[in-house]
Protein 1
Amino acid sequence: MPLKTIRSKADLAINGAPPAFDQPLHVGRPNIGDREAFLRRVGQILDNQWLTNNGPMVQEFERRIAEYLGVKHCVAMCNGTIALEIAIRALGLAGEVIVPSWTFVATAHALYWQGITPVFADIGPATHNLDPDAVRRMITPRTTGIIGVHLWGRAAPIDELQAIADEHGLKLMFDAAHAFGSTHHGQNIGRFGACEVFSFHATKAFNTFEGGAVTTDDDELAETMRLMRNFGFKGYDNVIHPGTNGKMIEVCAAMGLANLDAFDDIVAVNTRNHHAYREALKDIPGISLLSYDPNERNSHHYVVIEVGDDCPASRDEIIAALHAENILARKYFWPGSHMMQPYRDLFPHAGLMLEHTREVAGKVIVLPNGMDVSDKAIGTIHAIIRSVS
Ligand code: T4K
């Protein structure tokens, strides 16, 4: 609950007033479904004495996720980053792969960690997703694939990227870390490209503590990934792929099953909050809230605002004011992956090709959302931004 009413600049913590919240209000506060249901499942795990290595809870989780998304295979993993690495390896990507810079750095790292060069293509300034023309410009003889990211759960330009991939004989996969519960043309994200990779990290709309999954309709690819996540073993004593330890553990699957039952409620709260933010923020000049297509489903997990040049306060001034009030808004994904190591040294001039990435990175603030964010908190966040602007 907010602790004070903000009417003017004098009421702001940056000007010496006490903070609005005594406990931090986080962007990534985990959503937790039915505790009793989760704890019952933990009891079953202990009774089973089966804690990991493709146990019954993980198998049930995979079945339920595949059913929910309407996809043939869900291969559960220990986190989204390892899931990306395994998908990249199983698809045989090599050389150069085109990715957006405007994403969490894990997308690029998953390639680089395997000796593949991530080549950064620019985004559309309104979509925050890959611009297909920019992708075309980055294709070279070494390019083997494209990883589209459904940033903020809004679908990447799937059809255009598929056309480019087909035209140039490239593999196409998606980083769907933000997109559990999203649709594209009414079809669930999870079924596009060669495969799609989800993150079920604690900070995501749907979480399994840590976790991830690759979904695909391709039987052979799914089988390869299942083996690769378990060191490449096919049966006892027989390794047929280079592999790693990418397994989801039973307790994470239990959390996922409890949270899957609560997912509709989580989305309802996020959506309501999103509308409340939209109503509240519309009177502040220079602040615009990124919108979701009303014809598509989306978890509405990310509340993303852009601070325009016509806003009297800068993005960083607003962030500083919110942090002083104990509201830990974030600048995700500033300054862009191309500005982070090792890519900054590898491609010192990448920014020249990333005009929209640079522009968007300077404007974005992600505000708190989720089951813990109340109408009152949104009112306070609005009052702070209005008073500082
Ligand atoms: N691709 C994309 C597009 C991604 O966004 C991500 C992950 C990945 C791939 C990789 O998936 P994973 O390998 O992570 O499954 C967080 C998450 O760690 C990361 O999963 C996520 N994206 C990224 C967008 O956000 P940080 O460095 O911002 O985390 P941190 O520790 O600052 O936490 C965020 C906020 O949440 C803080 O205010 C604290 C709060 N929090 C966090 C945790 C873990 C809680 O209140 N409770 C918690 O348990 O990266």
Note: The CA atoms of residues 2 and 377 lie 6 Å apart.
Protein 2
Amino acid sequence: MSLVLGLDSSTQSLSAVILDTEKGIVVADHSVNFGGDLPHYNQPHGYDESGARGEVHANPLMWLEALDLLLVRMTGEGVDFSEIDAVSGSGQQHGSVYLKSNFNEVLAKLSAKSDLKTQLSDCLSRSSSPIWMDSSTGEECGEIARAVGGNEIVCAKSGSVAVERFTGPQIRKFAKNEPNNYRQTGVIHLVSSFFASILAGKTVAIDHGDGAGMNLMNLASLDWDQDLLKATADGLKEKLPPCAPSSSKSGAISPYFVKKYGFSPSCETIIWSGDNPCSLIGMGAASPGKVVISLGTSDTLFAAMPEPKTDPNGFGHVFGNPAGGYMSLICFKNGSLAREAIKKQYSLGWEAFEIRALSETPIGNNGAMMLPFYEPEITPAIDTGGPVFSEEHEYLSGEAVRAVLESQFLNMRAHSEWLGVSPSRIYITGGASENDGIAQVIANVFGVSIDRLDVPGSATIGAGMRAAHGIGEDLADLESKFSQPKEGRTLDPDPAACEVYQSALPTFKEFLAKQFSS
Ligand code: ADP
Ligand code: XUL
């Protein structure tokens, strides 16, 4: 039994938990908010908001500074890192970091007298990192698909059609537009494998969970796919770390962290995974049967899969399950983004948002719906932003709140039917999951009970559980300790409301189809 550190570098923050796996408790929980704590990067939500033509990039130096700041803060608050047996992490998926061939050499010589940002800034061959919100690579997706013989082939090989935010199309765009910088790149990391490399003091592998979100990994062989590599960019194989199972150890922690923060030289590092694969572990959903909805900046729906099954419409994805096997994932970009837009438009707090959704308006909203796609959407793929209301009248605040929530979850239900699973309950997580108004709409739209876990941040907890699993602890035992539903917080569906949504579903699909084809 051990003390393990789980880190999570998400869109907006870097978080850490320390788990005591013997007692089954979270002993520390800290975080750094990129916008609030590091305002000098001018990325208030964790990314540069001035990108044109769908480009969304973040500054990788901000992530490095956040890591030092988090560890300084934790030390200041009395955390003793010398007792940590293992560390692993979770990263926002798809984002990539481009490093020159001196990266390993610099990592090996990091001095505890300076900081990560200062010492590693010279290693970047691209000053910014495209992240998952980027939708600028439509052209490159088409080129990759054509080069391998069509999107059906890309999907059969990699688990997803060529997707704008996925790393392969992003790499292709970089290689085309900045050929010199691409040539100077020695290694391309995901956010997850970048952080894992910093901790290990050397370039480490990309795990099968996050690797599957690149349009480069072959799902059957769990290795880089020669055809996809060739279709993406010249000489790419040499610039990618190897793929490895998510529970792989990557050696003792770098001396930088031993000297600077007092980690034990025998603290093990376990390679990182993506935030959704980590959340699957943290939610106790590593075995097929549980469906999870994560309500973060984006909303995602995911579940472990017995066999890799791909989405015939091309919106869903298959990733590696960190516990072995596969998981499905569907990402809805306008999750909290859309809810926040309505909240802001009507000057509401979250409490008012919740109360209005429940009490001021009838279930079904008298038929008023919306297509809540403020930003270009991923599921379904709509490349222009801007909400569309089904009825042309002034929406009062309660009506608008209900329209956004009901439409978001009708859209989620419509686009998850291909999974063919009928869960008996859905587990929710993420920043918005505490909101009972939102949770009740999900229960009613899907017609199942909703549970929440007794711990904050399933991706961070999942990263900690993966660290413990990596040093030999039993995953089922960890799940029984850390992934238990909160008592007294189950929300059951209301049968009358379920009937309303059952008949609203075809109407929503028609509304969407009409809007799409016009
Ligand atoms: P990420 O991991 O993508 O950074 P989080 O899971 O931390 O995101 O969720 C952050 C989001 O949660 C915020 O953008 C905010 O909109 C939303 N949120 C926070 N509290 C509430 C609440 N009480 N009701 C609804 N949404 C909330
Ligand atoms: C998943 C996706 C997002 C990010 C958010 O495909 O793009 O959920 O992982 O961090």
Note: The CA atoms of residues 287 and 434 lie 25 Å apart.
